[in-house]
Structure formats: structure tokens, C-alpha cells
Design a protein that fits this description.
Elements (H helix, E strand, L loop, with lengths): L1 E9 L5 E10 L4 E5 L6 H8 L7 E6 L13 E4 L12 H11 L4 H14 L15 H13 L5 E5 L7 H16 L3 E6 L2 H7 L2 E5 L5 E6 H6 L1 H6 L6 H8 L9 H10 L1
Parallel strand pairs: 3-7, 3-8, 5-6, 6-7
Antiparallel strand pairs: 1-2, 1-4, 8-9
Helix pairs in contact: 2-3, 2-4
């Protein structure tokens, strides 16, 4: 789906945000870009989504040489600022915007709005101006507008920040469903507790914008020393079982519960 090689990006003030990143994302994969604040996750996501031109290196999409612009409607990129997706007079129009740009019928756009509004608990907010929404509501509306174009690849920058427990569970369920439908999902986060719920593979970034490790979610999340060296706390469930002296560490709460029941 995405093949990045030698990616590097420096901001105008000379800050190197991403440095020499090689990364291949296969169809249907769920990948987390994990790293501490300032590691370059957001910048990398923008580079992968074709929204920033790299200073060095290149990104290939779908095994072709088409530039990011040409495959824009197949890539759904959620940046950290929900305001970037909410620029119409109402939330409804924001969600309809993508389908309209793709030339879909009004009936199909309406259908997508209704489905996404129900999923994200936005029905009562559809006719409001987006700036009158709370931070978490804006994030949910932004995610709905990204999903409205039915992308093949989703690139999500900290999608759960500001989102409460119920809506978090709803969004995680939806990501599971999209993944089961074959959508490729890349999620950036500094939150090790979230990773096992959204990814099967992890790309761990260090503070210098370089990849420190890649591996299965289990491999990366149970290597507590390496996580700490990268500036991250291990997931709570991993830390708990590690400190309690367990050998084989669970990475999800459900797995931990199962383990304890068997004891
Ligand atoms: N517009 C900018 N101008 C200059 N430096 C920037 C800019 N945006 C980000 N940076 C710097 O680039 C580096 C990577 O930032 P980036 O936002 O990609 O990291 P991140 O891993 O997403 O961080 P966080 O977890 O805090 O969101 C940091 O050192 C940051 O200070």
C-alpha cells in the first residue's frame, strides 16, 4: 500500500523531524507509529499521506509511481487538528464534503452521513456549526469526515486524544470492522496502552526521528527496557505482570484476565 524509503524531513528552522525512515505498509495491515512527544510521528504520517513533500527519500503508493495527489481519495489522513476537516457551516456539510468531491450522488452522501453520525453519536450535532462543538465532538466529526470517502488506507494521528470512554470503544470497534473489511490502518500514538488495540505491528520511533525498532505488537510492547530507552512507559498491563514476576507478558487486558482466571 505504502512504501517509504530514506524519508527525511526538516522544518524551516532546521529541526530534523524525520530522519532516514524506511517503511513498508502491506495491504490490510494495522500498524502503529509509536514514539514519545516530538519523535516525528505526526510529520511521518503527513509524509506517508502525501501531505508534506519529503526533503529526502520517496513514498510509493499502491505499487505504482503515482504521486500522493493522484491517489488522494484512497488515502484517509486524520491530522491532529480536527479544525482542518471542519470548515463548512454545519457538521453535516463537513461530512458530505468528501463524497460530494468524489462526485457521489446526494442520496449516497446522505446515507454515509446518517451511518457515520449514528456511529459517532453526532446525530444531534449535524446541523450545528463545527466551531460550537467540544474538542472531543470535533475529533469525532473530523474522523467521520475522513471516513466518508471510504478510503483504502487510513492514517490516523492520535485519533483518540480528547475522546471519552464510550466513544473510544465505539471508534475501536469501528477500526476493527474497517480492518476486517480489508482497510489498511496506520495509527500514530505516544500511548503504549492503546497500541495493542489498534495494531499488529509497531514501528517504534526514538526522540531523534529515527526508527528504533519494528516488530510485532507483542515483541515491541513487552520489551520494557527498549520502551523506556525510547522515552515511553510500558503498557500498564505489561508493567503489572512484569513486576509481579510473570514470564510471558500479556499485552491486552482481556489476555491478562484470561491468564489470571487460569491461575
Ligand atoms: N512547524 C514546525 N516547525 C518547526 N519544528 C517543528 C514543527 N512541527 C514540529 N516540529 C518539530 O519536529 C519534531 C517532530 O515533531 P512531530 O510533531 O512530528 O512529533 P510527534 O512525535 O508527532 O510529537 P507529539 O507526540 O508531541 O505529537 C519535534 O522536534 C517538533 O518540535
Amino acid at each position: 500500500m505504502i512504501e517509504a524509503s530514506g524519508l527525511a524531513y526538516r522544518y524551516e528552522d532546521g529541526t530534523t523531524a524525520v530522519d532516514g525512515v524506511d517503511l513498508t505498509i502491506e495491504a490490510g495491515e494495522r500498524v502503529a507509529l509509536l514514539g514519545p512527544n516530538g519523535a516525528g510521528k505526526s510529520t511521518l504520517l503527513l509524509l506517508l499521506g502525501g501531505l508534506l513533500p519529503p526533503d529526502d527519500g520517496s513514498v510509493r503508493y499502491f505499487g505504482t509511481d503515482q504521486p500522493g495527489d493522484a491517489v488522494r481519495d484512497r488515502l484517509g489522513v486524520l491530522t491532529q487538528d480536527p479544525g482542518e476537516y471542519l470548515f463548512n457551516p454545519t457538521v453535516r456539510e463537513d461530512i458530505e464534503y468528501g463524497p460530494a468531491q468524489l462526485g457521489l450522488s446526494a442520496a449516497e452522501a446522505d446515507r454515509r452521513v446518517a451511518e457515520l453520525a449514528e456511529r459517532f453519536d453526532l446525530e444531534h450535532l449535524l446541523d450545528r456549526p463545527p466551531f460550537r462543538l467540544s474538542g472531543g465532538e470535533q475529533r469525532r466529526a473530523a474522523i467521520a469526515s475522513v471516513l466518508s470517502v471510504d478510503p483504502d488506507v487510513l492514517l490516523l494521528d492520535e485519533p483518540l486524544s480528547n475522546v471519552d470512554g464510550n466513544n473510544e470503544a465505539e471508534l475501536l470497534d469501528l477500526l476493527d470492522e474497517l480492518s476486517a473489511d480489508g482497510v489498511t490502518i496506520v495509527t500514530s500514538t505516544p500511548d503504549t496502552d492503546l497500541v495493542a488495540a489498534v495494531a499488529d505491528r509497531v514501528v517504534l520511533l526514538g526522540r531523534d526521528g529515527r526508527v528504533v525498532a519494528t516488530g510485532s505488537t507483542r515483541e515491541v510492547l513487552t520489551d520494557t527496557d527498549r520502551l523506556r530507552e525510547a522515552g515511553l512507559a510500558p503498557p500498564t498491563v505489561v508493567e503489572l505482570f512484569d513486576r509481579a514476576g510473570f514470564e510471558d507478558l500479556p499485552v491486552r487486558v482481556e489476555e491478562a484476565v484470561e491468564r489470571l482466571r487460569r491461575q
